[in-house]
Amino acid sequence: MRRSIAVARFGCFALAAAAFLWLGAVKAADVDPKVATITPADQIKWSKTASVDTAVLAGDPTKPGIYVILVKWHPHKMSRPHFHPNDRYITVLSGTWWVGTGSTYDPDHTVPVHAGSYVRHFAKQIHYDGAKDEEVVLEIVGDGPETMTPAEKK
User: Fold this and answer.
1) pTM of the entire structure?
2) Residue 58 and residue 145: Cα distance in Å, rounded?
3) Beta strands in the chain (DSSP E)
4) What CATH code is carried by the domain that includes residue 88?
5) What is the pLDDT of residues 26-52, one digit of tens each?
6) With b meaning 16 or more CB within 10 Å and e meaning fewer, what string describes 66-83?
7) Is 87 within a domain?
8) pLDDT tens digits, 99-135
9) Number of domains, the chain
10) What is the span of the domain harbouring residue 61?
11) Residue 54 within a domain
Protein backbone atom coordinates (compact mmCIF):
# COMPACT_ATOMS: atom_id res chain seq x y z
CA MET A 1 0.00 0.00 0.00
CA ARG A 2 2.81 2.43 0.90
CA ARG A 3 4.55 1.59 -2.37
CA SER A 4 1.42 2.45 -4.40
CA ILE A 5 1.09 5.79 -2.57
CA ALA A 6 4.72 6.56 -3.34
CA VAL A 7 4.22 5.60 -7.00
CA ALA A 8 1.09 7.79 -7.18
CA ARG A 9 2.96 10.74 -5.64
CA PHE A 10 5.84 10.27 -8.06
CA GLY A 11 3.35 10.14 -10.97
CA CYS A 12 1.73 13.38 -9.84
CA PHE A 13 5.14 14.99 -9.43
CA ALA A 14 6.22 13.84 -12.91
CA LEU A 15 3.00 15.16 -14.44
CA ALA A 16 3.40 18.51 -12.69
CA ALA A 17 7.04 18.76 -13.79
CA ALA A 18 6.11 18.00 -17.41
CA ALA A 19 3.36 20.65 -17.34
CA PHE A 20 5.78 23.19 -15.84
CA LEU A 21 8.38 22.50 -18.55
CA TRP A 22 5.75 22.75 -21.29
CA LEU A 23 4.39 26.04 -19.93
CA GLY A 24 7.92 27.38 -19.62
CA ALA A 25 8.38 26.84 -23.34
CA VAL A 26 5.32 28.95 -24.22
CA LYS A 27 6.39 32.51 -25.14
CA ALA A 28 4.53 35.74 -25.80
CA ALA A 29 5.46 35.26 -29.46
CA ASP A 30 3.12 32.27 -29.44
CA VAL A 31 0.10 34.55 -28.91
CA ASP A 32 -1.84 35.20 -32.13
CA PRO A 33 -1.50 38.99 -32.71
CA LYS A 34 -5.02 39.01 -34.18
CA VAL A 35 -6.27 37.90 -30.76
CA ALA A 36 -4.14 39.91 -28.31
CA THR A 37 -1.14 42.18 -28.10
CA ILE A 38 1.27 42.08 -25.22
CA THR A 39 3.46 45.04 -24.27
CA PRO A 40 6.04 44.15 -21.61
CA ALA A 41 6.44 46.75 -18.86
CA ASP A 42 9.90 47.76 -20.07
CA GLN A 43 8.47 48.62 -23.51
CA ILE A 44 5.70 50.96 -22.34
CA LYS A 45 6.52 54.49 -23.57
CA TRP A 46 6.35 57.07 -20.79
CA SER A 47 6.20 60.87 -21.17
CA LYS A 48 7.99 62.42 -18.22
CA THR A 49 7.40 65.69 -16.36
CA ALA A 50 8.50 67.07 -13.01
CA SER A 51 5.29 65.93 -11.24
CA VAL A 52 3.96 62.94 -13.17
CA ASP A 53 4.88 60.53 -15.91
CA THR A 54 2.15 59.32 -18.26
CA ALA A 55 1.78 56.49 -20.74
CA VAL A 56 -1.07 56.11 -23.20
CA LEU A 57 -2.14 52.46 -23.38
CA ALA A 58 -5.21 52.84 -25.62
CA GLY A 59 -7.06 55.57 -27.45
CA ASP A 60 -6.01 59.20 -27.60
CA PRO A 61 -6.81 61.32 -24.53
CA THR A 62 -6.76 64.48 -26.67
CA LYS A 63 -9.60 63.28 -28.92
CA PRO A 64 -13.20 62.14 -28.38
CA GLY A 65 -13.54 58.49 -27.40
CA ILE A 66 -12.35 56.09 -24.75
CA TYR A 67 -8.76 56.22 -23.56
CA VAL A 68 -6.64 54.28 -21.07
CA ILE A 69 -3.57 55.87 -19.52
CA LEU A 70 -1.07 55.14 -16.79
CA VAL A 71 -0.12 58.00 -14.48
CA LYS A 72 2.95 57.74 -12.27
CA TRP A 73 2.96 60.39 -9.52
CA HIS A 74 6.40 61.35 -8.21
CA PRO A 75 6.77 61.52 -4.41
CA HIS A 76 5.74 64.81 -2.78
CA LYS A 77 3.79 66.04 -5.83
CA MET A 78 0.11 66.98 -5.90
CA SER A 79 -2.26 68.64 -8.31
CA ARG A 80 -4.13 71.80 -7.38
CA PRO A 81 -7.97 71.81 -7.27
CA HIS A 82 -9.42 71.13 -10.73
CA PHE A 83 -12.13 69.20 -12.54
CA HIS A 84 -12.55 67.13 -15.70
CA PRO A 85 -15.45 67.32 -18.20
CA ASN A 86 -16.23 63.57 -18.03
CA ASP A 87 -16.21 60.80 -15.44
CA ARG A 88 -12.86 59.08 -14.93
CA TYR A 89 -12.38 55.53 -13.63
CA ILE A 90 -9.18 55.04 -11.67
CA THR A 91 -7.44 51.97 -10.25
CA VAL A 92 -4.48 52.41 -7.92
CA LEU A 93 -1.87 49.93 -9.18
CA SER A 94 0.89 50.70 -6.67
CA GLY A 95 1.59 53.03 -3.78
CA THR A 96 -0.86 55.15 -1.83
CA TRP A 97 -2.69 57.88 -3.74
CA TRP A 98 -3.97 60.86 -1.77
CA VAL A 99 -7.29 62.47 -2.80
CA GLY A 100 -8.96 65.66 -1.62
CA THR A 101 -12.18 67.36 -2.67
CA GLY A 102 -13.27 70.98 -2.91
CA SER A 103 -11.78 74.17 -4.26
CA THR A 104 -9.54 74.89 -1.26
CA TYR A 105 -6.15 73.20 -1.59
CA ASP A 106 -5.29 71.43 1.66
CA PRO A 107 -3.05 68.35 1.35
CA ASP A 108 -3.46 67.66 5.09
CA HIS A 109 -7.14 66.90 4.45
CA THR A 110 -6.62 64.31 1.71
CA VAL A 111 -7.54 60.67 2.23
CA PRO A 112 -5.29 57.71 1.41
CA VAL A 113 -6.31 55.39 -1.40
CA HIS A 114 -4.22 52.21 -1.29
CA ALA A 115 -3.03 49.93 -4.09
CA GLY A 116 -5.84 47.77 -5.44
CA SER A 117 -8.49 50.41 -4.73
CA TYR A 118 -10.87 51.84 -7.31
CA VAL A 119 -12.04 55.47 -7.54
CA ARG A 120 -14.59 57.13 -9.79
CA HIS A 121 -14.12 60.86 -10.26
CA PHE A 122 -17.42 62.36 -11.32
CA ALA A 123 -17.56 64.87 -14.18
CA LYS A 124 -17.17 68.56 -13.30
CA GLN A 125 -16.56 67.85 -9.59
CA ILE A 126 -13.60 69.62 -7.99
CA HIS A 127 -10.78 67.54 -6.57
CA TYR A 128 -7.00 67.44 -6.14
CA ASP A 129 -4.71 64.48 -5.73
CA GLY A 130 -1.19 63.13 -5.82
CA ALA A 131 1.57 61.39 -3.93
CA LYS A 132 3.00 62.05 -0.51
CA ASP A 133 5.96 59.89 0.56
CA GLU A 134 6.11 57.36 -2.28
CA GLU A 135 5.65 56.93 -6.01
CA VAL A 136 2.07 56.10 -7.04
CA VAL A 137 0.94 54.42 -10.26
CA LEU A 138 -2.67 54.77 -11.46
CA GLU A 139 -4.57 53.37 -14.41
CA ILE A 140 -7.14 55.89 -15.62
CA VAL A 141 -9.94 55.12 -18.07
CA GLY A 142 -12.03 57.96 -19.42
CA ASP A 143 -13.89 59.48 -22.32
CA GLY A 144 -11.88 62.09 -24.20
CA PRO A 145 -10.94 64.66 -24.79
CA GLU A 146 -9.26 64.59 -21.38
CA THR A 147 -8.90 68.12 -20.08
CA MET A 148 -8.26 69.66 -16.69
CA THR A 149 -9.92 72.93 -15.66
CA PRO A 150 -8.35 74.77 -12.69
CA ALA A 151 -10.85 75.47 -9.89
CA GLU A 152 -8.84 76.63 -6.88
CA LYS A 153 -10.41 79.16 -4.53
CA LYS A 154 -7.76 81.75 -3.64
Assistant:
1) 0.79
2) 13
3) 47-48, 52-58, 65-73, 77-78, 82-83, 88-94, 96-101, 111-114, 118-121, 127-131, 136-144, 149-150
4) 2.60.120.10
5) 454 588 989 999 999 999 999 999 999
6) ebebbbbbbeeebbebbb
7) yes
8) 999 999 999 999 999 999 999 999 999 999 999 999 9
9) 1
10) 41-150
11) yes
